[in-house]
Amino acid sequence: MTKTLAIVGARLNSNRLAGKHLLPLAGEPMISHIWRRLMRCNEVNSLELATTADHFNRPLLYWANEHRVECHPYEGDVNDLMARLDKIIQRQDPDYILYVCGDCPLIDPEFIDHGLKALKRSAKDAVMLEEGIRTLHEGLSFYSRNGWNKLMAASQCTMSREHVGYADKLTPVLDRVVICDSGDYGQISHRISVDTQADYRFMAETYRRWYTNHESDSIVSLAWVQQQLLQDSQLTSINAHVTQKAADKQYAKASLYCHLGADIGLGHFRRIELIADALQEYLGIGSTIHVLYDGEPLSSSSTKLHWYRTEQSLLDAMSEDKNPLLVLDFHPEFIAPTSLTQALKGPKQHGAKLVGIDKLSPLIETLNRLFIPSFYTALTDNKVSYGWQNYLFRARPNKTKQRQVLVLTGGSDALGYGARLPTMLTELGLDWPITWIQGPLAPTPNIPQHSNIKLLQDPQNLDELIAGAEVILTCYGLSLFEAIYSGAATLLLPPKHLVDLDELQRLRAENCCIISESLEHACAMLTESVARESLREALQTQSKQVFADHRGIKQLMAEIKMLMAND
To answer: In this predicted model, which residue has the larger pLDDT, 498 or 368?
Structure first.
C-alpha cells in the first residue's frame, strides 16, 4: 500500500507571534483546525506533528498527547527544519510527503488531494502550479520520496536548512509536475497564513463568521472565504498591510520601553504593544518590549516582554541596548528625563535611532523623532510630528450604534471616579443601559446594589463595545480620543491635572466632545445627551470631521521607515 505522510511543522516561539499554533479560533486551537482539515484528505493516510523538544514547546506536546496526535519532538538544532522533518521521514518511510506550515488554518483538502493525485500519477519529484496561476492556497509542499531526498541533499546553506524548498529556489534540482488549481481561487490575492497579530485578527473574524452560520463539525470553506474577501473590504483590510518576511533578508530589531502602574495607568503599555505589532506587520521589524512595573506581569500577545520592578534595572537594560531602533513611551512625571538621557548615551553612541512618544519633549535634544499622538502641541521643533491624524488606534470595528452609555475611567481609574460616580449615575434614572468598564489596574467601582449599571472587568471586546455605544462618558487620555474616533457622542469627565488649560481650550473649540467641569456637570450633560438626539448627532458629525484624515499607525511607521533609511 502506498504511504502518504502529512507533516505539520509548528513551534510556539515564533518571532512575530509567539504561541500562535494554540491561539483559539472559534473555541479551538488553530492547530486543531489544521488537523481536522487534514483528516478529510483522502490521499493522506499518515499524520505527524513536527516540533522541537525545547521547554517552550511543551504546551504543543500536551496538545498532541491529549488529541492522540503522533509527535516525536526533535532534539537537534531548533532552527534546522529540514533535519527535523527528515528525522520523521526516515522513521516513517513514506512514499509521498505533504509538508504543511502550522500557521495555515485554511488549507483546502480538495486541493491537497488534487495535488497528491497528480504527483502519484506523474512519477516526478514535486508539484507546481501552472505559470501565471494566482491562488489563495498557502503553506503546502508536495514531494515524492525521491524528490525529498534530492531536496535534502541540496539543502546545505543555513537558509535552505531553515526553509523547506529554499534550496530548490537557489539551484533547481526537482523535476516538477505542473498542475492547474482545484478550483477558481485566483479572484483575489490575500494572505491567509497567521504570522502577526493582524493575521490572527483576520483569521479569528473569518472563523467567527463561518461558525455563526454553519455546524460546529464543518470546516471553513476556502471558496467561501474568497467570496467574503471579495464582498467585504473591511475584512480584507484587517491584515492587508502585513509585510511578508523574505527568507533571505535580514530585518532590523527594535526595543520598546514604557511603564505602567496604578498612578500611571495602562495607556503607555497598550500603545507600545500596538507599535510593536505595527513594526512587525508594516516593516518586518521584530520587537522586544521592556516594561517598568512593580506588580504582577500582565498577560499580553506580544512576542517578547521583559518586566522590571525597579527603575534602575530598566535604565541599565536601556543603556546596554544594542538594537538599531529604540522607541520610548514614558510620562516624565513618573521617570526623570535626566535619567533617561543618561541611559540613552550608549545606544546613541552606537548609532541607534531614538523615537519618543507623546510627553517626552524634555528629551527632544537626544531624540531623533518625537511622535505626538495628539491634535495639539506647543512645540515647533522640526523633529516633532503631531495632529489629529497621529492618534494611535487599532482599526475600528464596524458596529451599528446602540442606545447605550459606556463609562471609561482608564486602566487604573487614576482619578478615582469609581468612588462617587456610580451612585450619581444610578440616581439619574436613565432608561438607557449603562456599562461601566473596570480597567485591569483599577479598583472595583462602588456600584449600588440595585443599580442599572452593568460592570465589565477588562473585557476582551472593548473595541467592539466602544464602536457600538452611542454615548460614551470617559476620562482624559487615549480612551477619550478612541470614543471620539468611534463616532460616539462623547462626554469628558473632569480631567483635573491630566491636561493643561491651553490644550483643553483648544479641544473645546473643536466641538467634538462635551467637557465637564465637575461630576455633577458631567451627569447633567449625560442626561441632556440621552434626551436630545440633535445634540448627539452634532457631536457625532463633528467627531467624523476631526478624524477625517486619520492614519495614526501608518503615519508613525512611515516616519520610522524614513528615519531608519537615513543612515
So the answer is: 368
